[in-house]
Specification:
Low-confidence stretches: 1-22, 27-34, 675-688
CATH architecture of the largest domain: 4-Layer Sandwich
Radius of gyration: 42 Å
Shape: elongated
CATH class of the largest domain: Alpha Beta
Number of helices: 16
Helix content: 40-55%
Strand content: 15-25%
Mean pLDDT: 84
CATH topology of the largest domain: Phosphatase 2c, domain 1
CATH superfamily of the largest domain: PPM-type phosphatase domain
Structural class: alpha+beta
Length: about 700
C-alpha cells in the first residue's frame, strides 16, 4: 500500500519503537578476503528497526545481483539516509543496486514488513533473490512516480534467527531542468518490523501529512467556491469576462493543489504528473494575464490585447512542446535535455509579461477594491513563478530559495502555514472585501434603476391614456400590457375640431427603456402634428421625416385612422399588421415602417363602418406569444380567435396566457349609432 509519511515523524517513531531491539553488526569474510557487514537484529519483538546500513552499492545493472549468494565484498558502501548524488556519484542517472545482509530473530506467528522510503526514481525489491515488490516500471518501458513510501511484506517464515539479503534495484531517470545533481536512489533509511507496527507507523505519517495540509485544503475549498460563483456570474452576464478569467485562474490553482495531493500522486506516473503540472501552469499563466487585463480595464487597449494573445500563444506552445518531451523523457539524451531547457526558458520569459500589465494597470485610475484584488492576484502569482524559477537549474545554481519559499513560516495546531498560504489568505479577504463593496454598489445601482423605471412608468402612464375621450358613434376599448416595466407599444385617441377623431396605434422596435424613450418622442411629435394636420397619410409622412436618425437604428410601425360620426374611416399604414374588420382581415396598402427612408410615401385608403361593425387593431406581441413548446400564437390562431368577435381584454389575456414575449396592445373600435363611452381596460401598463 502506498503512503506518504513525513520523515521527522517516521524517524522519531522509529527511535521510540527500537526500544528493546538488540542490534549489532557482524563481520563476515568473503572469498576475496574483504569484510562485509551483516546487520543482526535480535529480539525484534513487536518493534521496528531502521536499516541504517551501511549498504553495499554498485553502479550498473545485473539481475544476478539479486541473488543472496552474489559476492558483493568488492562493492562500495553507502549510507541509506542520503542519495547517492551526495556520496560521490553526482549527476549519475541510470541503474544502480543496493544490498544489505541481515540476520533476523523472529517470534512465532510473527509477520514482518519493510517500509521503503522515497526512492529516485523506480525500483524493484528482492529478498534472497525473490522479487517482493516494486514501484513504477524499469526500462525499456520506464514508468516512475513522484517520491513516496511503500511497504511490502517480508517473507520470513522461520522462527528464530534467519539470514537474508535485501537487494534494491534502482533506476534514476535523466535529469530534468528542475532536478538536483545530488539526487538518486534512497533518500532515507528503510524500516523493518512487525507488520501491524509498520501499518501504525504509516498511519501516523498519514495523519501528520493530513494535519500539515489542512490549511492548504481549506484555502483550496475557498478558491473553488469563489471560482464557481465567478463562473455563474459570468454565465448570467457573458459580457463580464473578468469573472470568467478569475474563475479559470482560481480553478487552475485548485487543480494544482489536488494534483500534488497524496492520493493523486499515488495513482499517476511522474511523467503524467509533470505533463499535467506543465499544462496547469500554462493555464494559470494565460488566465492571470487576461484577468489583470480586465481588472485594470485594459481590454480597450487593442495593441496590448494583441500582445497579450501573442504571449499566451507562445506560452501555451512552449508548454505543449515541453509536455511532449516529458512523455519520452525516459530515453532523454543531451539534445533532449537542452531542448527541455530551451522550452522552459521561453515559457518562463513569457511569464514576465505580467510585469508589463502591472505597470500599465497601476497607472490607471481605479477604485480601491479592484486595485487590491489585482495587486494580491499579482503577488500570489509572483510567489509561484519565483518559486518555480528558483527551482530551475538548481544543480548549477545551488539556490535554496525554492525550499525556503515552500517551508512553513509558523504553525497553527500543527498545521504549517507557508508564505504562499499567507498571500492566498490575504487574497481571499481582499476578494471578500471587493465583493461586499460590489454588492453595496450594485444595490445602489439597482435602486437608481428602479427609480428611473418608476419615473419612466409615470411618464408613460401620462402618455398612454387610461380613459379614452368620448367618441360620438363609436365604442372604443383598449388594453396595453408591456412585457417589461415599460414598453415600446403606443396608442393615441385624439379628438379633432371637426368632430372626427384620430386613432393611432404603433410599435417601436426593441423593448424596455430605449423603446419607451422613443415612444415619448413619437407621441410628442404626433400630438404636435395633429394640431396642424388631420390627413392620416400626411401625419405618417411628417412623423417619418422627424424620426429619421433619431431611433438609433430602429424603426416604427404604425396605423393611423381618422373616423367621423357618419362612419367614414380614412386610414394609412406604415408597415403595421393589417386590422380585422368583423373578424376578417382588412386588405390595405403596405408601406415602409417609419424612420428608415426619408422620402417614404404613404397611401391613404377609405372605407365605411356600418352600425354594428367592429374593427380590431393590435401589435405583433399577440402573434409572437410563445408557449412552452416554443410555438408561436401566429396568424391562424389569431383568425380563429377574432372570428368570434372577442373583446380587447379577452384577446390580450389569451395571448398573455399562451406565453407573452413582447408588448401587447389591442384596440377594438365598435360602430354604434347610439354611441357609448369609450373605455380603456384596467390592465394598462401592467407588465407580465
Amino acid at each position: 500500500m502506498l503512503r506518504w509519511l513525513s520523515l521527522p515523524s517516521l524517524i522519531a517513531f522509529s527511535l521510540l519503537a527500537r526500544e528493546g531491539v538488540d542490534l549489532r553488526a557482524e563481520q563476515s569474510s568473503s572469498a576475496s578476503g574483504r569484510a562485509a557487514q551483516t546487520l543482526v537484529v535480535d529480539s525484534l519483538g513487536r518493534g521496528v528497526v531502521t536499516l541504517d546500513g551501511p549498504w553495499q552499492f554498485h553502479l550498473g545493472d545485473d539481475l544476478r545481483w539479486a541473488d543472496s549468494t552474489c559476492d558483493d565484498s568488492n562493492w562500495e558502501q553507502l549510507r541509506a539516509d542520503e542519495p547517492w548524488g551526495v556520496q560521490g556519484h553526482e549527476a549519475y542517472t541510470g541503474f544502480a543496486w543496493y544490498r544489505l545482509h541481515i540476520r533476523l530473530a523472529t517470534l512465532a506467528d510473527q509477520n514482518l514488513a519493510i517500509l521503503i522510503p522515497p526512492v529516485d526514481d523506480a525500483y524493484e525489491l528482492y529478498w534472497n533473490g525473490m522479487k517482493i515488490g516494486s514501484l513504477g516500471s524499469l526500462p525499456p518501458h520506464a514508468v516512475w512516480h513522484v517520491g513516496h513510501r511503500q511497504s511490502f511484506a517480508l517473507p520470513v517464515s522461520s522462527i528464530g534467527e534467519s539470514d537474508g539479503v535485501l537487494a534494491l534495484r534502482v533506476w534514476k531517470a535523466p535529469l530534468s531542468s528542475v532536478d538536483l545533481s545530488t539526487g538518486g536512489g534512497l533518500n532515507a533509511s528503510p524500516i523493518i518490523g512487525d507488520t501491524s507496527l509498520i501499518g501504525t507507523t504509516v498511519a501516523n505519517g498519514d495523519f501528520q501529512s493530513l494535519l500539515a495540509s489542512l490549511y492548504g485544503r481549506a484555502i483550496s475549498y475557498f478558491f473553488m467556491l469563489m471560482a464557481i460563483l465567478s463562473f455563474f456570474a459570468w454565465m448570467r452576464n457573458r459580457a463580464q469576462k473578468l469573472f470568467l478569467w478569475f474563475s479559470i485562474w482560481l480553478m487552475s490553482k485548485v487543480a494544482l493543489y489536488y494534483l500534488s495531493s497524496d492520493r493523486v500522486i499515488e495513482l499517476i506516473s511522474s511523467a503524467t504528473f509533470l505533463i499535467s503540472l506543465t499544462v496547469l501552469y500554462s493555464i494559470e499563466d494565460c488566465s492571470v494575464f487576461l484577468l489583470l487585463l480586465y481588472l485594470f480595464n485594459l481590454e480597450g487597449n487593442r495593441r496590448l490585447i494583441r500582445w497579450a494573445w501573442i504571449v499566451i500563444a507562445i506560452n501555451a506552445s512552449s508548454a505543449c512542446a515541453d509536455g511532449l518531451l516529458i512523455e519520452y523523457w525516459a530515453n532523454a539524451g543531451i539534445a533532449m535535455q537542452w531542448a527541455d531547457a530551451a522550452f522552459t526558458a521561453v515559457f518562463q520569459l513569457t511569464e514576465l509579461f505580467v510585469f508589463v500589465l502591472i505597470y500599465r494597470g497601476l497607472r490607471r485610475e481605479l477604485d480601491l477594491p479592484r486595485k487590491l484584488v489585482a495587486l494580491m492576484a499579482f503577488l500570489v502569482y509572483l510567489h509561484g513563478i519565483v518559486r518555480v524559477f528558483s527551482a530551475e537549474g538548481r544543480r548549477f545554481t545551488h539556490w535554496t530559495l525554492y525550499r525556503k519559499l515552500g517551508a512553513p513560516l509558523f504553525h497553527i495546531f500543527g498545521a504549517g502555514i507557508t508564505s504562499r498560504q499567507v498571500l492566498e489568505t490575504t487574497l481571499i479577504l481582499v476578494v471578500a472585501y471587493a465583493l461586499s463593496r460590489f454588492a453595496i454598489e450594485q444595490q445602489k445601482h439597482e435602486q437608481a434603476i428602479e427609480t428611473e423605471l418608476k419615473a419612466a412608468r409615470e411618464v408613460q402612464r401620462v402618455m398612454i391614456p387610461e380613459t379614452a375621450p368620448e367618441v360620438p358613434g363609436y365604442d372604443i376599448a383598449s388594453v396595453y400590457q408591456p412585457a417589461r416595466e415599460v414598453g415600446g407599444d403606443f396608442f393615441q385617441i385624439i379628438p379633432l375640431s371637426d368632430k372626427s377623431t384620430l386613432v393611432i396605434l404603433g410599435d417601436v422596435s426593441g423593448k424596455g427603456m430605449k423603446a419607451a424613450m422613443n415612444v415619448s418622442l413619437i407621441i410628442g411629435t404626433l400630438r404636435t402634428l395633429a394640431e396642424f394636420e388631420s390627413n392620416p397619410a400626411s401625419i405618417l409622412s411628417g412623423l417619418n421625416r422627424r424620426m429619421i436618425g433619431r431611433l438609433q437604428g430602429g424603426f416604427v410601425t404604425a396605423l393611423v385612422f381618422k373616423v367621423d360620426p357618419s362612419g367614414q374611416c380614412n386610414l394609412a399604414n406604415a408597415g403595421h399588421l393589417e386590422p380585422f374588420l368583423n373578424g376578417k382581415e382588412l386588405k390595405i396598402e403596405g408601406s415602409l415602417p417609419l424612420g428608415i427612408v426619408p422620402d417614404a410615401q404613404y397611401e391613404q385608403q377609405s372605407f365605411t363602418m356600418s352600425d354594428g361593425d367592429s374593427l380590431t387593431i393590435y401589435t405583433d406581441g399577440v402573434l409572437e406569444a410563445c408557449n412552452e413548446k416554443r410555438e408561436l400564437y401566429g396568424f391562424e390562431r389569431m383568425r380563429i380567435l377574432l372570428a368570434s368577435g372577442p373583446s380587447a381584454a379577452y384577446i390580450a389575456e389569451t395571448a398573455r396566457t399562451f406565453g407573452q414575449e413582447d408588448d401587447i396592445t389591442v384596440l377594438t373600435i365598435h360602430r354604434s349609432s347610439a354611441g357609448s363611452p369609450s373605455r380603456v381596460a384596467a390592465s394598462n401598463l401592467e407588465a407580465t
